[in-house]
Amino acid sequence: MSWVDGLRHRLHVWSDRNAYFQEQQEERRFHREMELMHWRAGDARPGSDRASATNPSGLIHRQRERSKVKRFLDGLRQDFGYAVRGLIRSPGFALMAVATLALGVGANAAVFSVLDRLFGQPPAGLGEPEDLRRLYLRIVDHSADPEVIAPSFNYPAYSAVESAVEPGVGLAAWTPSSEQFLRSGDGEVPIRASWVTHDYFDVLNVSTARGRLFGEEEGRVDVHVPVAVISHDFWKQFFGSDPSVLGRSLDIDGTDYTVVGVAADGFTGLDLNYTDVFLPLGTLPVQTWSGDPWWETGGNYLQVASRVGEGVGDEQLAARATAGYHRQVVPERYQVLSTTVVVPGSIIAARGVGARAGTAHANQAVSLSMRIAGVSAIVLLIAAANVAGLLLVRASRRRHELAVRRALGISRARLMSQFLTEGMVLTALAAAAAVPVAGWGGAALRRLLLPEVQWARGPLDMRAILFALGSAVVVGLLAAMMPALQPWGGRLGTGLKVTAREGGGRGAGLRSALLAGQAALAVILLMGAGLFVRSLDNVSSLRLGFDIDELVMISIRTSPAPAGPELREVASRLTAMPGVTGAAMAMLAPMSGSAYGRLFLPGRDSLLVNPDASPAYNTVSPEFFQVTGMRVLDGRTFAPGESQAVMVSQTMARVFWPGENATEKCIVIGEPDSACQPVIGVVEDSRRRAIIEEPMPHYFLPLDPDAPGRLILLRVQPGQWDAAANAVREELGARYEPREVMIRRSTELLEPQFRPWRLGAQLFTAFGLLALLVTIVGVYSVMAYAVSQRTHEMGVRMALGARMHDILGLVVGSGIRVVAAGVVIGIAVSLALGRVVESLLYDVSPWDPVAMAWAAGILLATGVAASFVPAWRAGRVDPAETLRPD
Predict the structure, then answer these.
(1) Percentage above 70 pLDDT, the chain
(2) 34: which residues sit within 8 A by CB, 6+ positions away?
(3) With contact defined as beta carbons under 8 Å apart, do 455 and 274 qualify?
(4) Which residues contact 511 (CB under 8 A, 6 or more apart)?
(5) How far apart are CA 137 and CA 334, in angstroms?
(6) Element (H, E) at 452
(7) CB of 161 within 8 A of CB of 327?
(8) Most CB contacts within 10 A, which of 447, 493, 498, 855?
(9) How many Cβ atoms sit within 10 Å of the Cβ of residue 180?
(10) 448-503 tens-digit pLDDT
């Protein structure tokens, strides 16, 4: 065929496609008849299909099937094109639907990305993670919290547990990843390091990309062998994947370590915080006050994991480990727990412990994170209902068109296909927009939930992206099925009589139900926001026993620790810095730990308090109480140079000497035959561990002025933190290396304890406002459509004397009735679900009437605002224009 004939053929096809397809049908019919004639004559053509040569119906059936597939693909293509053209003609509708779905799906994918990392995925690079267990200590402390879950062990306890477990169970220990400083040609670079036992990699079943792992000799705690295994990411980023990295030297905090291996790609440790460098446990630079080696003292530096063998259950492992622990540590209140290491998020601890007053704040963070998933699911339901309502409104406006198409022979199945195709187009656009929303939201949620964690990977991975796509498809299909299942054009006569003005009311009940459902869900979120805001206000107003505002803690981490006179000189110089009003020294900062000692009362034969419930103590300088803002209720504070004196807390005075004057008493500290030290003052109760706990006995001793120390407390003038911090850093920088000094504000130290309530208030408020916005869009769209369908009615009413306020009351009242129904349902559901969030609140009832009224008032007010614009338009209808067609 010449190019002229080809061009003529194409023009013929384009000009009359129906005639062309009819010619194709005739040609296929001719070939089928020829095949049948050859078969009857027993003269099948060479090369023809065997089934066709023996059975011509096979060829006919196959061609029919091909025709069905072609018709399906052609129909799908036409539906897709029709849906795209319809969305282009309605950009406002398309943008609103896509944005609503993208926000709902993106928010859920963001929550999924964080919770999946915490509770759903094992750490990367592990071999057979299902056989790994993580060990915790359950501590029943009669003097403090009823129950505490701790993830840390000291080395003697770890050794005892290791010797007690079954021979087929491997045990490994490591220190949590911490910031260290690597010296390079450009100065000091911050890195994250972890000290591990020699069998750490073997127990976790982690291989190497290059080099080797630690040998048994290198893992001994009493042998200092400075070698290092670096992570694959650190090898790529710091060394540029240099194959000659083995044998290189790393100067970490003044110690030269030789690189002997590169861990497998992806492995950065078991914890949420990533690890750049793994170092032998024997090189851990820990100094103790007693001067004894750290592995012989009680410092809880280690976390422990085990790999169980076949037939070893969690209970059996925990029982053996507990028995070994009790041989090393006397108190029976300690019990070892075995928890499956499914995720690095197990470091959050306290899983399975009820969240109650006095329990670890991490427990509340875990409980809250699980409820965040429920909150985001509510937002997704609201988004789905909103989009379903928008699609119903859009389909209602096309009722006349749909009836005409049914009259022309289009089947109901084809109409459903078009609705579903349009929904899938919206879903695809929403899924594409939801991925960046999920990335941004996941990063923001990480900063809110766990701001101190240095994450090794970004918030989005393939699992989160697939979750976003899958949830978008499910929600899009559910929303699209609402209009698809409506009997549009079911009665052709009625449908054909519908004008653009009248539109029909089919689906109005379903739209109202969806709108009421959105309002109910929004009320639940807004009420939750109110409850958490009130809880946060109650917690923030607590008196902790000291003033946390503008209190600064400075830790000097030199080896050996600074001598007493040196530390006093540093504190004196810091007091003269601009913006600093006072300085004090102490063994422990407020709420940063506890120390215990033996106490006796004169005249009593037995130990006053057993080791399981011993009062805590702290050694402090005379300026401690003024700098911290701790109020003295009776007596006086320590005098300079005073060494034989005690100050007790209000609770200790009440428990030890009920109804008596504590300042007339004395206490024997240490051994029974030691001198009785007089109680010179009573101070207010202060928190020892958590911002919410019962008052516990506490006492203070004078700090030995010549003993080495590390901690300085500063009081800074309000609003002068930045200037004071710069001056303090300059003064300390002249004496110590930057890595030897840690400066932290008290508010930063306590922030993790306020975080559950602050996070609850922020997230419930954010999701509540998002739900409120989506609900406003739903109210506005439904009311705008309802008004457009009742234009003729409004014109008649105004022609008969109705005024603007009558129309406003009619339309706004209609919208408010639907929203009010949703408010009532939402409050009822919130009351029923109050127990779910009760443990996360503080000093506020989950059925708080203020929060209830606040949520209902906001939603009703926004319902009025969303209905007012359509109502105003209805009131401005010209009756003459409306009634002219009649």
Answers:
(1) 74
(2) none
(3) yes
(4) 389, 392, 393, 782, 785
(5) 6
(6) none
(7) no
(8) 855
(9) 21
(10) 777 767 776 778 888 888 888 888 888 888 877 776 666 544 454 444 454 444 44
Give backbone dihedrals phi and psi of 602, rounded to 5 degrees, phi first.
-55, 135
Q: How sure is the predictor about 407, in pLDDT bands with cuts at 50, 70 and 90?
A: low
Give whole-number Cα distances, 746 to 144, 548, 549, 589, in Å. Answer: 22, 6, 7, 9
Query: Which amino acid is it at 734?
Result: A
Residue 39 has pLDDT above 60, yes or no: no
Where in 64-169 does DSSP place strands (E)?
132-139, 148-150
Residue 143 has pLDDT above 70, yes or no: no
Burial of 731 (0-12, 13-18, 19+ CB in 10 A): middle
Gap between the terminal Cα atoms of the chain: 63
Residue with tokens 């750049």: 276
| Residue 504 Cα to chain centre, angstroms | 46
Cis ω on the peptide bond leading into residue 560 (within 30° of 0)? Answer: yes
CA angle 496, 498, 503 (to 5 degrees): 140
DSSP H helical segments within 450-461, as ranges? none
pLDDT tens digits, 662-705? 888 888 887 777 888 999 999 998 887 778 877 888 899 998 88
Residue 184 phi/psi, 5-degree rounding, is -135, -175
Angle (deg, nearest 10), helices 361-397 and 412-449: 150
- According to the 3-state scheme, what is the secondary structure of 342-373? CCHHHHHCCCCCCCCCCCCHHHHHHHHHHHHH
DSSP state of 62: H
**What beta strand segments (E) does 269-428 contain?**
277-280, 303-307, 334-340
- Here the tokens at position 843 are 């000093």
* Mean pLDDT value across residues 207-230: 86
Q: Within 10 A of 145 (CB to CB), how many other CB atoms are there?
A: 21
Nearest to 195 by CA among 160, 151, 238, 225: 225
State pLDDT tens for residues 734-791.
888 777 788 888 887 787 778 778 877 888 888 888 888 878 877 777 777 667 666 6
Q: Where are the beta strands (DSSP E) in 516-615?
A: 551-556, 580-586, 595-596, 599-600
β-sheet bridge partners, residue 171: 306
689 φ, ψ (degrees, to nearest 5): -130, -45
Burial class (CB in 10 A: 0-12, 13-18, 19+), 821: middle
Residue 860 exposure: Cα atoms within 13 Å on the Cβ side: 14
Query: Rounded distance, CA 637 to CA 639, Å?
Result: 7
What residues form DSSP beta bridges with 647? 681, 700
What is the three-class DSSP state of 176?
coil
Residues present in the chain in total: 886
Tell me how far apart the alpha carbons of residues 651 and 320 are, in angstroms, rounded to a whole number: 39
> Hey, what are 159's tokens?
């050794």
Structure tokens of 806? 């009558």
User: Contact at 8 Å (CB) between 218 and 274?
Assistant: no
Q: Which residue has the tokens 């009420």?
A: 527
Instruction: Output DSSP code: residue 117.
Output: I
Instruction: Please report the DSSP string for 651-696 in residue order.
Output: HHHHHHSTTS-GGG-EEEESSTTSPEEEEEEEE----SS-SS----
Contacts of 103 (CB under 8 A, 6+ apart): 379, 383, 434, 437, 770, 774
Cα separation, 503 vs 396, in Å, equals 7
- Ramachandran sector of residue 545 (left: φ over 0; alpha: ψ -120 to 50; beta: rest): left
Cα gap 821→518, rounded to integer Å = 11
By C-alpha distance, which of 52, 269, 289, 31 is closest to 172?
269
Per-residue tokens: 774: 């989506």
Q: DSSP E strands: which ranges in 505-565?
A: 551-556
Instruction: List CB contacts of 348: < 8 A, sequence separation 6 or more.
Output: 118, 362, 365, 366
pLDDT band at 277 (very low <50, low <70, confident <90, very high): very high
Cβ–Cβ under 8 Å, residues 171 and 306: yes
Q: Which of 611, 649, 841, 839 is nearest to 139 (CA)?
A: 611
